Fold each of these.
Amino acid sequence: MKKSDKKPYNQKTGNTIVSYLWSAPSLILICLIVIFPILYTGYISLTNMNVYHWFTYDFIGIENYKEALLVFDSGFLSALVLTVLWTVVNMILQLIIAYLLAGLLNTNGLKLRNFYRTLLIFPWAMPGYVSILLWKTGMFNSQFGLLNQWMEKAGVSPVKWLANDVSAFICCTVVNLWLALPFMITIIDGALQSVDRSYYESALLDGANWMQRTWYITIPAIRPVIAPSVVITIFTTFKQFDVIYLLTQQAGAKTGAHIHTILTYAYENAFITNNYGYSSAVSMIIFLILIVFSYVINIKPKEES
Amino acid sequence: MKHRKRKRIIKLVFVNLVLILVCVLTFVPILYAFSVSVNEQNSLLSSDFSFIPKKMTFENYRKVFTEEPVIMWFQNSLFLAVSTVVISLGTGIPAAYIFSRRKFPGRNMILQLLILLYAFPSLLSMTALYKLLSPMGLINTKMGLIIVYTGTMAVFALWNMKGYFDTIPVEIEEAAMIDGASPIRIVQKIVLPLAKPTVAVTAMMVLIYVWNEYIFAINFMTGEHTYTLAAGLYSLQANETSGSWPVFSAASLMVSVPILIIFFALQKNMASGLTSGGVKG
């Protein structure tokens, strides 16, 4: 006789208990370090906790949220706009440059392909903060940065690259591209390798030029392959903190530029001006934005059906 | 035909030139830091600085060891990294295995919740974490940082390894189960050997995260002797001016070497070991 699919009730409960026992250590950690702090952040966001009211804070309702969302001068909304701009600019540049470079790597008959590839992904392997600090001091520093040494040689007076908003934004973008391109190149390169060569041959016979081949064959073919990684990169770009913080606004070493993404804004309010309640409200708003964002894009990692 | 061949060669030369240029540009910051770190004359401020130092010296590297407590920072980083990796894998592997293999009430809900949590940058709950850890006396202790790091990476570890376990066929395990092997034995003898790539990549991601993490390290730890390498390096660049730039670049490059080695050693596993789309290093 075949064993029935339905297990007796006891065994099922036992199964559940065993499952939870096995996953308990991991789930407890997540509850303690991830979930509880988020809930607690939500609670702090409803209080006026700051450096003067570290223990004796009062419950003030949604005042902090009002300040962040309705008072334009508070800086949150402009940080949000800048973050969106930052994400859009970075993603467009990243995709175009990575596509072009990956295309070059896939040129027929290129012998040193792997050599170039290894060199190009090198920045990915470097610790991120080290790279950023090396860029900050090595390239952008107004005295001994390489850029200004070159400027000097060319007879132009040195520039304080990180001191005004526009040039600081460009510098941050350059560094972010330097850090993020290796990943994107790897992804697009892998996708290009999977495109069926025969499409190109028939397109060439039909006289399609490079633009047409790119637009009608390559992009539609690689889009589904690169989509998940692009979505992840959009998230990491949106949540970028290190580049902007380390380049322009470390504690005690502000360079004079006032570019804030929402994350550096939240951090500054928490740990520089010590306005914990307000910063927590900002954090909760960011979290909500990220949740909505991920629902809109609908990234559900594949599950077995 | 000859014409086409010539055209192809010209194209290849052009492609090579562009790629060489891009590679050189990519390496400018690193090469510059390296040449500064080994340059004997401190000719930084003069305009005749050249990439190839006229006189080589390892003085700056020696200074890193003698003038800064780098060895201690290294030990701190290593201790934190290894502890975090061990705890992450120890808690993550059984959970990932169960979520991959068993169906139980609450499973789907937890998985959905974890995706949401993955979107939350841990930086944002730093105040709450501080408030949570400080009454337990865990601020300014290694234990506190290990808990924060493990918790932060737990969601990633669980999802990433579960994704890989899903791709391992269950038939072998079922056969072993019929033979009477216990679940723990099955994981040890069958699942883990098959799941090596994902375990290696998960461990690497956790290790790199801890090695590179500076923001919790500088806010939760005070005092030079408790610094990690990342926090120490951060303090080196933040509180000193031009004079220490050669020492700083020497220290930066040294800190990067272990990560570079691990990265390139495990690079082949990257594609297969990162399943849920993963994160960037």
Amino acid sequence: MEKFKIYVHHYYTYELFWLFFHGLEIEPDNVPTWFRNYNRWNKNIKVKESVILNGIYKNNKIEIEFCNEKNWDKTDGFHLFDYSIKLLEDGLVSDRGFNSNLMVETNNKNLDFLNSKAKVLNNKIHYHYIDWEGHDPYIMEGWYKRMSSKIQFFVDEETTSVKEKVPNHHFVFTNLIWSFIYPNTLGVRDYYFFGDYLKYKNDYKYKINVPIRRMYGDKEAMANIVLKLNNPTISVTQSSFGDENQITPDTHKPTPYRKELISKIPKENFIQKRGYGIHDWGGEWNSNNMNENMWKMFGISEVCILFEHSPTRDRILTSRFSAVGNNFITEKSISHILVGKPFIPFYKETIDFYNKWLTTYGKKVIEFPLEYDCILDKMDYIDNLTYDEHKWNEFVEKLKIYVNNLRTQLIELIHENNSYLDYVISDKSSKPLSIL
Amino acid sequence: MKKFYVHHNYSNDLVWYFFHGTDLKEPDIPSYFFKEQNTKQVLETKYKNDSIKIIFCGDDEWDKLDGNHIFDIHTYLMQEGISTDRGYSYKTLNYFEYKLRDDLIKKGRVLGEKLNIFYIDWEGRNHTLPISKIKNCKIFVDEIVSATNCKNHHYVFTNNFLSYIHDSNLDIKHSYFLYNYLKQITPNHKLSYSVRRIIGEKIKQIKKLLTIPEVFITHSSYSFTDDSVDSNIDKEVDEFRKYIQAHIKDNYINKRGYGIHDWGRESNINNIHEMYYKILPLAEVEIIDEWMELDYISEKSVIRILSGKLFLSSSFKVYDFYNKIQTKYNKEPYILSFRYNSFDELCEFIKESIADKDKWNYVKEELKKWVETTRKNLIDISYTNNSYLDIILNNSKELI
């Protein structure tokens, strides 16, 4: 049995353990949650001492040491550093949701730091950068120019635009999925348990809803189609979006279509985040948007059409196509999968993505009950389907079976596997072999 | 115009917590994104014909003598990152006692009754000792009846109730929205009773409930039994292990599980989430321990009311309290057709009701009417009145 050691340069929390080391054979009781002198009464107080855990992963011994800023001089193991977790620990962000305001400054700071360490540690530095966005940091943040080629980076884009030249690029599927729930800063983990309530819901107003908050991409075309269909069982909701500058102050210009859409949909389909008293969900923080999603959006329709990105489509729509990474999923599909809510993604690529990774890990795949590439081209079919109760119910049942299978298989897959650890224990020549 | 200096950083939720019932509507209450926008804020409005000016000023403006100065101990500790939520914590008690109290007493010497300290800790009179030593200002608390040595304490129902919703950091607001889903589920059991921290009274109650087969009793994991707050419960824990655990071993709710099933530590937020997702859906009716003997309400009854969960409280005083509050604020409470005066009587009542389908349905209907009426009335009351402002502006006495 080989042994591998990983130094995690963050403060220990049990949530970070699951994020980085799910799939490890370890008893939950051996994953400590609190320490007498630190976070016993306040979970936000950092555990400053090193915490060491041991487990088995696919017949390999793994020793994990959460050591924060210490031990960068150790050459007997890998060194893990996570972009988003560092921002969280420094109090610069409240969750993993992308923050363009910090991107340039933090990127430069991290690269300077990690590059300096790479001189000694060579390819033992593992830089995790999972931002739930489709932008390719290798291009967009200049890693191809500035990052030491020795640093191994672990991202949520399957490939970069220049994959052949980037042997240190690693897509980590299981860590990507788990990044949505650990640390649970956005309450996404709660969706899994909320599913036990949602399955009883049976008084939906609509058969299908297209939820839109920030208007961009093909969403406008979709809203237009829904309005033209004039089908009383298909709706579009527009959520309030108080301050557009919160998101991408440099690039995002609000579309005038938004006002037109709001004027044409039923009043109750304009989902207001601000309301009186208990109905006031506050500002446009990611956590508030996720609360709105859970408590306001799931009860509207039997099925949701979700805007998940298609890298292929994004490359057509943007002039900076080389900056588009192969990223297919966000909290939108993850939240629906965890809660077991039937959904149709805008582009079939999302389905293909999940199916591909279930297959890769030997999990059961169920056929998606709709053949399409882009849902925009299929809305006439969907429209007709809603008028035939028998066919519609059959379709919804198949969607439920699809999403429930995906939910079950994904959880199983992640409890048994770890994409990052698969790299650690692999015998690729680009990294040291046994290190202990 | 009456001025209120609020010595906390601004947030829309704090406006609802302190100044609900005023003429402020949500467009008047900004919800800013950037941290720097959330420090200071001035709002002007009216409360029942009195014009008021609200100045969120953080740690500044303590020298101003032209208005009331609001300082909420739990809000301060949460904003400073010293505690994570409003729920009970030694950290809160110790920090207040050793780091805040002397300074507040000094401020009280200058401001007198214009210093308005909020100490809403969701605990009973036995927890008021630390705050009872401040005598020179007005203190707003959640003990319905204060101890005799606390003449400057004032019970503020609406602020107490809304502290759960707007300033708890515990997602308790979510229970109001959970209502829409909870009412649709089909529970597996008729009655449930859930315990986490084992204390003597609960052991006595479990022993009695074990004689009623229809009651599903769960035991949740609890890892702080060596804590000083629990230093004297070893005997109870032993007794629980010896006589009870075997009877309910299959109903153990373990907070620790593998991966997604790991709820983590015994933090208040994890306990609340366990309640939402593991406890509330268990049964048609839940038996809860809301101890009114120490004259306070806790998240136990608040969450059940907000979520519309049917419950039988171990103390009937809970229903009396909420009914009296509704009457005080000119709302019509739903009066339950049954009554019990002890836990023994409650058990007898359950045995009698549950044996007969019609009787059981009747009990459920009664509880449903009570919880639905109370839920609606308490929300109405809290957003059209303000117990704190009634005391400051109208010399109201929050007595029921």
Amino acid sequence: MNKKHKLLIVLLAATAAVWFLVFTKSPAPTLKVNFLDVGQGDAILIQTPKNQTMLIDGGPSNKVLEKLGKYLPPLSKRIDIILLTHPHADHVTGFIEILKRYEIGAVILGGADLKTDVYAEFLNTVRKKDIPIIIAEAGEAIHFGSPAEGPEFDILSPEQSENLVFNEKSEGFGSAGNDVNDTSIVGKLIFNNFSIMLTGDATFKIENQLLAYGENLKSDILKVGHHGSKYSSFLSFLKMVSPEAAVIEVGAKNRYGHPSEATLSRLKMVNANIFRTDLNGDIEIISNGFTTNIYKEK
Amino acid sequence: MDSFIIPAPLLRGGVLVFGIFVLGSAFFKKSQPNFLPKVVFGFAAIVMAFGMMRSAKFTERANAASRDIIGKEVIFEAEVVKEPDRRLDFAQYVAENKSLGRVLIKTGLYPEYFFGDILKIKGKIAKPKNSPDFDYTSYLAKDDIYLISQFPEISFVRFGGANFMAGLLKFKKSFTSKINSILPEPQASFLSALLVGAKKTLPEELTAALKRTGTSHIVAISGYNISIIAVVLMNFFGYIFFPRRFIFWIIGIIIILFTLIAGAEASVVRAAIMGGLLVFAKREGRLYGVTNAIVLAAATMLYFNPRLLRYDAGFELSFLAALGLIYLAPYFKKWFKKVPNFWSIRDSLTATVSAQIATFPVIFLVFGNFSSVAILANVLILPTIPIAMLFGFLGGLGGFISLKMGAVLILPAHFILSYQIWMVKTLALLPFASTL
């Protein structure tokens, strides 16, 4: 091999490296929200213009790991915030392996405790890794940049964080009206003119309380509550949010019959475009704060 | 109906008596011209009779598997006797109880149990069910499992005590967890599959793509991986001027440990026995008779587990591939003389074509699948495997010191793995990639 060849190889490698960087770096400062298709459960990845990352819920299995590999930058093994809306298995299970494999900045919880094996394992792993825990409460907000430039995540619910302990060995609904789903962290992600309402598994009971926010509920996109179950997404709430698009995180042929026909027709009544992870795969929303694009996998 | 057929005792005895008779008659009239064929035939008949008896003994055990408890709720204590099989959304444990034998337990991912744990299990016991395209009963039978229990109540009793195997599996787990902390998915699972044969956590989509492109064997530990490891080690120890006679012992021990770590599947054991013989032959300075090695490997494996012969497609495929590489490869080597051996492309081509032809009948019969891009895919991917394995291994080891260091060391493997996965997925997209 002569000098020319060597030079050529070096140049080729350099070009490849530059292109690799070009392809992996997003040019304009955009907010990316990925509704991941993880089967019957929730997992929503948020990447801010400054490359901070937040994962809302971990899904029902380790399927989420492959999705993170797909959407996070190739060499990144850090997630700044993981936020668990509530401790049900279809939201927490995937987090355990994520905690083991990724460097996590902080864990945000809703304050409800559920006595299941999966949730106990989750808490143990958080403790073992010595990751700070923050209990979310309505009125608080996460600022991903200066208040002027955003984005920010405003927490609208749960109202109180008195210790709610659910002594359910099973995943079932809590007794005496203490529905675990209603402890869900509900929040609104705002970036300039763009906003997404994220409701976890909250039911109409919480939606009714939220109506007190009035005009502030208005959002461009709604993550439909509780996988499109009929006990969520009531008309009065939907009218207040009046979303352009509604995203339902739901698994194909799930045994609960999500999403319900009733919910789908209510969404149509408010003229929301419906996106479903069971039909559309991963749903990616990219916004610069003024114009927003929605991409679906299928 | 029993799915395990036992040759009748009369038949077994008959074959034995017949063999003895043929052998006896041969010795009775030694001067006959067909003395030698008679001896060989008689001897073969006797060996066959012994084989039938042994197989009958094993199958009897299968059919005796406490049928009266099937469908009933049972409480029992059992020890986890195999490496836990953790998938994306559930886990499976092989638990052994003195009176029930082995029971396959399917349950959630958490809480996590480990090899050697003693568990108290309360739940329904059932027989494995076959689906139209998969003989699940036979698949489990090869590992001596005849009962299953799905999502029973499990409680941890105690740890059965540390032993050698538990230690080995613990090391494997911490090694793969280092890789998992450094690489994203699916690269992490892909690398673990290459290095220690942990392929169960690959995403469904990728597993299907591997099948479509005829590259599934890459993620199953085989003779190929073992020979790479042996050669790299031999060069390494040779390089640091280690005395020759020690090198062979060390490599032999490493191959055995590796086999245990990789889960001792049929293909791994076969490769290990043959690889060990190769190393041994070199040490003794004798010629390595490959045919003898294959026969010895098969005989040894069947001695320990006769079920492999009938119930393990992996056993058949592994030996067919080896036979293809030995007997067909020389012909194809001549065919492909003109192909440049840049990055050992010609060797990969020869090996792939030989192995594909040898294994095609069984693959087609068992899996009903023929991949038309297999040769292309293998030639494009195989040459890059050794580098991925080497840097992946170094990165994993580096991870024990610090994850940052591991991440730097693993970088070349990261790129190559991404290339391999991309290639497999792209080729699988071709509409004519696979016929079913």
